[in-house]
């Protein structure tokens, strides 16, 4: 150890003796040596001790990227060089964060953002674009917009991000339209930009691209012809793509044969007034759809929102961008007349009293005890069930609790007590089984099958018998068209004539549905 120390002292003395008068200042001399690449280990050693950036740069280049030593020297460099700060930021927060999203910790994200900001302070233009993309992926649109606008030179790549930000923030006013239109020239310079231009046209993002179901190129857009037709909207490009993906995944669902979709379209988030209350479903001011309602050719409207959870309100379906295909199918089933088989809210109107007539494809709210002759009681109950014709004559739906046989013989048949429910030994049959739907109230709900379905848990299967019920009975409990939502929303704000207009529209859909049923009945 002493020998090494003596050697270093000798080297220092030699360096001092050999320095020329023009380069006597040691740091300048060492930098000059390191830049010419004619340096020895001792010179590199002392340059590092003096914290010369060039020394850190050389030492960094000698390390394996990502190693502890590489991180050490890159961190040293990042205090002076924008590229080093950018490299360090890339290590913690990759340029394409979604690739490693599941592996990113909060600490890594925090460090990544810190070093991107440091790179920006050191005038790294690429860092602005990458960090702006990161902010955009996290829905921090204002921060992303501020960074993208601060670029010294706008490119096709920056135009892509700028366009996505504009669309997500909402293209609505003349100013928004001009900003979006201004990006088209730069977008046309890259393949990614051209794809984005196609998406703008495809999703009707610029206004006036659709009037009376005709696009700007003169092509008539397809109008869904089925009864349960749905037009989906979304407020960002990612959500437009996601909506199409969910629709595609729905094609393999049992309910697909009963539903048809119009091409997905854009809706500016500025046009939506939605809010959430803790523990409640997403609520929106549905009067905001009046401006384009005449150009929506479907019975139902679906909207994918950035957040807020999934639910159905009459003829409008709301879905969260995080929702799965199973959630999507569950919500569509509500439009077709199916009710949740998990406990509904305590104030749900269908659970407040015993029903007087069938109101759902899969749920009936009935008394649990009946008196009278079994055949008559059974007939009355079947009249209350949408799935009655799918219950075999041999499948019991009533039972008696333990009764003494002799007492049973003498009992007045008109006063016998019958309990509603199909015995569990018939669990593979269609019958009348307890549902959890009204567990939060004093009423009891019943369903056609014993096992749990997608109406109880999203991940469970959708029963074949449920699709058979609506196939044979013709969608008897469809939700009203979205026009009814508009009439309801305008009830306290507009004239009676305006409300009547949308009620008449809703009624026309009901007439079409009834007429279709009449034709089907006459045909079959």
Provide a compact summary of the structure.
With 524 residues, the chain is an alpha/beta fold. 44% of the residues lie in helices and 10% in strands. It has helices spanning 2-18, 26-36, 41-49, 53-61, 68-77, 82-92, 106-121, 125-137, 141-149, 156-169, 174-182, 184-187, 191-202, 237-250, 325-335, 374-382, 405-410, 464-473, 482-490, 496-523; strands at 228-234, 259-266, 274-275, 283-284, 300-305, 311-313, 316-320, 364-366, 369-371, 398-399, 417-420, 433-435, 444-447.
Structural overview:
This protein is of the alpha/beta class and 524 residues long. Among the domains are: 1-77, no CATH class; 220-336 and 481-524, Collagenase (Catalytic Domain) (3-Layer(aba) Sandwich), CATH 3.40.390; 349-473, no CATH class. The chain has 20 helices and 13 strands. It has a five-stranded mixed sheet, covered by helices on one side. A three-stranded antiparallel sheet has the order 8-13-12, with no helix packed on it. It has a three-stranded antiparallel sheet with strand order 9-11-10, covered by helices on one side. A hairpin with an 8-residue loop joins strand 12 (433-435) and strand 13 (444-447). The longest helix is centred in the C-terminal third of the chain and has 28 residues, at 496-523. The termini are far apart.
């Amino acid at each position: 150890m002493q020998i090494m120390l003596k050697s270093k002292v000798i080297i220092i003395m030699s360096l001092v003796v050999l320095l020329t008068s023009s380069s006597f200042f040691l740091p300048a001399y060492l930098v000059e040596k390191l830049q010419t690449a004619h340096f020895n280990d001792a010179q590199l050693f002392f340059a590092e001790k003096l914290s010369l950036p060039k020394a850190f740069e050389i030492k960094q280049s000698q390390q394996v990227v990502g190693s502890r030593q590489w991180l050490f020297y890159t961190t040293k460099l990042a205090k002076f060089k924008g590229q080093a700060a950018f490299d360090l930021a890339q290590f913690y927060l990759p340029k394409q964060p979604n690739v490693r999203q599941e592996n990113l910790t909060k600490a890594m994200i925090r460090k990544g953002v810190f070093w991107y900001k440091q790179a920006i302070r050191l005038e790294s233009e690429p860092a602005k674009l990458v960090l702006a993309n990161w902010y955009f992926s996290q829905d921090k649109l204002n921060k992303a917009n501020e960074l993208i606008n601060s670029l010294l030179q706008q490119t096709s790549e920056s135009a892509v991000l700028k366009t996505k930000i504009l669309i997500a923030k909402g293209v609505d006013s003349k100013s928004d339209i001009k900003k979006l239109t201004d990006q088209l020239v730069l977008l046309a310079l890259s393949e990614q930009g051209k794809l984005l231009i196609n998406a703008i046209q495809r999703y009707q993002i610029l206004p006036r691209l659709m009037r009376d179901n005709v696009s700007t190129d003169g092509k008539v857009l397809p109008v869904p012809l089925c009864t349960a037709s749905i037009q989906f909207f979304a407020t960002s490009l990612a959500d437009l793509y996601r909506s199409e993906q969910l629709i595609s995944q729905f094609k393999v669902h049992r309910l697909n044969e009963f539903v048809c979709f119009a091409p997905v379209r854009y809706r500016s988030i500025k046009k939506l007034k939605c809010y959430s209350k803790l523990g409640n479903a997403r609520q929106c001011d549905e009067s905001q759809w009046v401006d384009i309602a005449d150009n929506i050719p479907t019975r139902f409207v679906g909207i994918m929102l950035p957040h807020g959870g999934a639910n159905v309100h009459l003829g409008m379906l709301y879905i969260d961008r995080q929702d799965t295909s199973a959630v999507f199918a569950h919500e569509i089933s509500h439009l077709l007349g199916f009710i949740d088989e998990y406990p509904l809210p305590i104030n749900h109107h269908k659970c407040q009293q015993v029903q007087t007539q069938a109101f759902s494809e899969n749920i009936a709210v009935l008394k649990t005890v009946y008196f009278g002759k079994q055949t008559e009681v059974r007939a009355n109950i079947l009249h209350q069930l949408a799935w009655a014709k799918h219950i075999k004559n041999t499948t019991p739906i009533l039972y008696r609790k333990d009764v003494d046989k002799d007492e049973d013989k003498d009992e007045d048949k008109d006063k016998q007590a019958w309990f509603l429910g199909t015995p569990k030994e018939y669990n593979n049959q269609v019958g009348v089984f307890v549902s959890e739907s009204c567990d939060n109230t004093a009423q009891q709900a019943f369903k056609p099958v014993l096992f749990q379905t997608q109406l109880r848990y999203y991940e469970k299967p959708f029963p074949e018998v449920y699709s058979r019920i609506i196939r044979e009975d013709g969608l008897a409990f469809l939700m009203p068209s979205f026009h009814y939502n508009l009439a309801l929303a305008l009830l306290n704000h507009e004239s009676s004539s305006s409300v009547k207009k949308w009620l008449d529209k809703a009624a026309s859909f009901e007439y079409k549905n009834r007429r279709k049923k009449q034709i089907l009945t006459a045909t079959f």
